[in-house]
Design a protein that fits this description.
378 residues, Metal Binding Protein, Guanine Nucleotide Exchange Factor, Chain A, six-stranded antiparallel β-sheet
Length: 378
């Protein structure tokens, strides 16, 4: 058989397998709330630049993508930049059974783990879930007379393949990938810099009901996540009822994970002292009790020094003349995550809480309060 007929047979086989995959996937992309919902993706907010697992997913510019694509082979370029599909059973990663991480061949973002790979029998590398759902973008694809969901790298928009609904448990999904869109880094080998997570940092704050404090930190540019919980008490695994009984000594606190390239610890401190009244002892407005105390829980000596110096300087300002700042500054002990119904409470319910929005004042720009990234140098 000559080369022309060989390529023709491969194309026919590839399209037949795709049609079968669509037919088999009769359910609704269950993990994402259904096929119709999946069409509404991207799953991450357009202004999100750091993923849940701490990777930089800021969308690259066309010029940056073009520069990175220069290193690709003709086949890699055709697949990733022209939405091509490699012939079934021809990719070099279909039968790869080594432990490791599959990264984007263009920008290096980790996309899948070997532990989530399975043999689908389709001729393409298949996975039942991504490395991080924030690392994948989902696009409606109506080409070839079929309705499918294309998957792209969230950082560089490179075409990866498609996702179908005929995968194994627990997701029931099959992420069908082109080997040409992936690099593989075997376990034990160092990931290149572009495939490594950001050097994120953690800070802890308590200033009354954690609903409002959590919500305001979620609005801060450079904050990756804010989580409500309980800290610096005398018992393990406290729950909300026990904390409210005043028997555990825990404070309602918020764990703030942030990107120090975008926001400094000093700015987080400034926002904290603006969003609540630090002169109220064991209370915040109508909420009374030691769990509502004002506190900064520090993770190291540097944070301790910076927080103490910030508090001392603030006490000398005219705003606090005659009023004592009672905020406790002490080393952080174990953080216990609060119950699920406390997480993202203001965002989910729309109910207001005591904390005011400090970020326009901190960053000097009202637009920053809407979640936009801080300028370079902040």
């Amino acid at each position: 058989m000559d080369a022309y007929h060989t390529d023709l047979m491969r194309t026919i086989l590839m399209m037949a397998l795709a049609v079968i995959a669509v037919a088999v996937g009769a359910g609704a992309l269950a993990a994402f709330g259904g096929l119709d919902d999946a069409k509404e993706i991207p799953m991450q907010p357009t202004n999100k630049t750091v993923s849940r697992s701490g990777y930089d997913i800021a969308r690259l510019t066309p010029a940056q993508i073009e520069f990175l694509a220069k290193k690709l082979t003709p086949e890699q370029y055709r697949v990733t930049q022209k939405s091509g599909t490699e012939a079934a059973f021809c990719g070099n990663l279909v039968d790869n059974h080594k432990d490791g991480t599959y990264t984007c061949v263009v920008c290096g973002l980790p996309l899948f783990r070997s532990s989530d790979k399975f043999n689908s029998g389709t001729g393409w590398p298949s996975f039942f879930q991504p490395f991080d759902r924030d690392h994948i973008a989902y696009i409606k694809d109506g080409s070839h007379g079929m309705e499918r969901i294309e998957i792209q790298c969230a950082r560089c928009t490179s075409h990866l393949g498609h996702v179908f609904e005929d995968g194994p448990k627990p997701t029931g999904l099959r992420y069908c990938l082109n080997s040409a869109a992936l690099n593989f880094v075997e376990k034990g080998q160092p990931l290149p810099p572009e495939s490594q997570p950001l050097a994120l940092k953690t800070a802890y704050f308590a200033g009354g009901c954690f609903w409002g404090i959590e919500h305001r930190y979620q609005q801060c540019p450079g904050v990756v996540s804010a989580e409500s919980g309980y800290m610096n008490g005398k018992t393990d695994n406290p729950d909300y009822e026990a904390v409210c009984s005043h028997a555990t000594g825990h404070a309602e606190a918020v764990k703030v994970t942030y990107d120090p390239r975008k926001v400094t610890y000093a700015q987080l401190l400034q926002g904290f002292f603006l969003m609540h009244d630090p002169t109220q002892l064991d209370r915040q407005g109508p909420d009374v009790g030691d769990q509502y105390r004002s506190a900064v829980f520090t993770v190291d000596a540097e944070q301790q020094r910076e927080a103490e110096a910030f508090k001392a300087a603030l006490q000398l300002t005219p705003k606090y003349a005659g009023r004592k700042i009672v905020t406790v500054i002490e080393p952080a002990r174990k953080f216990f995550s609060a119950e699920d119904y406390h997480q993202d409470y203001v965002e989910r319910t729309g109910r207001a809480c005591h904390a005011t929005n400090p970020w326009p004042q901190v960053f000097g720009d009202a637009e920053k309060s809407k979640g936009a990234e801080a300028p370079a140098g902040h």
